[in-house]
Every structure is written in C-alpha cells, then in structure tokens.
Amino acid sequence: MSRVVVVTGATSGIGRAAAREFAGRGDRLVLAARSPTSLAEVRRECRTAGADRVRTVPTDVTDADALDALADTAVREFGRIDVWVHTAAVMAYGRFEEIPAEVFDQVVRTDLLGAAGVVRVALRRFRAAGGGTLILTGSVLGHVTAPYMSGYVTSKWGLQGLVRSVQQEARDLPGVHVCLVTPGSVDTPVYQRAANYLGRAGRPPLPITTPQRVARAVARLADRPRREVSVGRVNLLMRGGFTLLPGVYDALVGPLMRRGGLTGQPVAPHDGVVFSPDPAGAAVRGGWLPELSDLLRRAGAPTGRAATAVAAGAAVAAGTALAVGTALAAGGAARRRRR
Ligand SMILES: NC(=O)c1ccc[n+]([C@@H]2O[C@H](COP(=O)([O-])OP(=O)(O)OC[C@H]3O[C@@H](n4cnc5c(N)ncnc54)[C@H](OP(=O)(O)O)[C@@H]3O)[C@@H](O)[C@H]2O)c1
Questions:
Q1: What's the structural domain count of the chain?
Q2: Residue 290 pLDDT level (bands cut at 50, 70, 90)
Q3: Domain with 262 in it: what CATH number?
Q4: pTM for the predicted model, two decimal places
Q5: What is the pLDDT of residues 216-234, one digit of tens each?
C-alpha cells in the first residue's frame, strides 16, 4: 500500500536520493527543504520516478512553527504520516576557534536542534496516531571525532544521544519506531556546500559510498525498522580504533584528515549554505566518486570495490603501523625512564 512519507532535506544528496527511492515505490511524498526552486526540481524527478502524489513545502528546520505547519500539510493532504525521513544538515570546516561563533551556532542549530524539532513534531503526531516510523540521519562522526568539523561532530554526537533517549522513551509505543542511519563518507554535494574557514576545500575521505546506497538502507528501515544501521565499509574499524586505541587514533586522524579529507584547492573564508540555500549546488551526487576512480585508473590502481578494499587495507595498515610504532616508542621511553 502507498505510504505517506515526509522527507526533510529532500533537495540534495541522501534526502534527494531517498525521495526518489520512495517515489519508485509509489509512495505519496511530502518534500521539504529551504529552496523552493530545488524542491520543484525534486518534485518533477519524483513524479517521473513513480510517486503517487508529491507535495512540496519550503521549510527551514530551525523554525519550530514551520515544522508544525509541514506536519499539518502532510496530514491535511494525505490523512496521516507513515514515515518521516530527516536528512537536513549543513557543515563548516575550520579550527574551532577560527570558525565565527554565529556559523558554529547555526550548524548546531540546524544539525542538532533542527533534528530535535523534527523528533518533537513527529513523535507528538505518531503518539496521537498510534504509529509511525521516524528515520534520522546520524554519521560515523556521531561515534568518532575528526578535526576541523567541530560543529558537525558536536551535533552528530548530540543527535546520537537524543535518538537513544527517545528510542528508550518510545518503548511503550509498539507502533512507533525511531531509527538512525549512520553513513561514513557519501558522494554528495555537502562538502562543496560547507562553510569554510580552513583555507582548503573539504572532500569525502575514502572509502566513499553512494547516496543511493544510503537511500536504499533508509527505505529498508521504513520497511523493517531497526535501532541503527551503519552504511560504510570502515565505520566499524574507525569506531574500534577510536574506542580501543584513543592515543593512536588521535595521532593518526589529523594527518589522515589533511590528506584524505581536504583537497589542495585554496578557498577564501565563506559561509557556504549554512544560512541560506544555493539551488545551483543541490544535486544527488557530489561528483567525488568518478573523480577519484579516474585518478586511481590513471595511476593504474584498482577501482570500485577493489579500490575500497585497497583504501580499507591502507587504513588498517596505517593504523597498525602507527599502533606498533606508538607501542615501541612508549616501550623505549619506559626503558629510558627505568635506566
Ligand atoms: N555526505 C556524507 O558524506 C555524509 C556522511 C554521513 C552523514 N551524512 C548525513 O546525511 C545527511 C544528508 O547529507 P548530504 O550529504 O545529503 O547533504 P546535502 O547534499 O548538503 O543535503 C542537505 C539537505 O539539507 C537541506 N537543509 C540544509 N539546511 C536546512 C535547513 N535549515 N532547513 C531545511 N533543510 C535544510 C538542504 O536543502 P536546502 O539547502 O534547500 O535547505 C539539502 O536538501 C546529513 O544529516 C548528513 O550529516 C552525510
């Protein structure tokens, strides 16, 4: 049966891919983001992909009244909300003290407080209706940390805590599900659209997955809700390193971030889409995968799954090398102290 699916953050990346995925299943869609121009484009794509009916509602998730109005529109138009997928987020690169306070605050306002606003509105509606599935988008950066992305990391750690709390509170509501999808690197425009006070543009570190793959995981959660689903081949490895070898992780993450998570392209300070949307930069894909596979192909290295395996292998090898190096250095220092 056709479901009523609300998507907040539907105009770009994972949200846009999820909107198309649900459209392909013939669901009725209520699509929201800030840009009316991009929403109109996504509406056309979803109709072409097979959506039964599509309603767009320009919405800023930092505005609690707008979120209420969005839910009202969905219920008025389609009678109920079955699934609410929340993907809206923005990013800012820079050392914490060099990011303007208002930019940091707006990242947290959007990524954490905006998500909290969605949780509040969705759960109130679901509790009253006796059912519904809320799917939030966290990140592997809600389990580990990385430098130069403090507002985003702070928000994703906060979201992780919020989601676990409301999952526990909703245990008395058997028809209500709160799910979290936690991707690693995904080929979306979020990196180009991020604010930047670092002087070098950001990019997704390897291995990179597609927004379509994350969208399929989201659709599977709508069919069979689960507490959390991780999408990314090295997410578990990163979490293991972060938890079990924090000293090694901290020594490794800075150099890896500078090599793998930033481009050499210089950028003047700018606030990206943190405060207002840029319809020209909105798309499902960010264009990172072809670029990287081209580079690998030109270098004669394997691509696709093989490249992922190489990247994961390199990460493990680098981690192991550093772990052994750290242990040896610590042993040497201890011996010197004993002498
Ligand atoms: N890409 C990755 O590598 C990656 C990895 C892990 C997790 N994630 C998570 O996946 C989710 C989607 O990210 P993405 O990579 O797909 O980003 P994206 O391509 O930049 O899309 C972000 C979406 O959020 C919307 N948005 C931003 N601020 C908003 C606001 N104040 N109110 C309403 N909508 C707003 C944007 O539309 P408008 O600009 O039109 O408002 C856009 O539709 C995020 O939660 C992100 O943290 C991404």
A1: 1
A2: confident
A3: 3.40.50.720
A4: 0.89
A5: 999 999 999 999 999 999 9
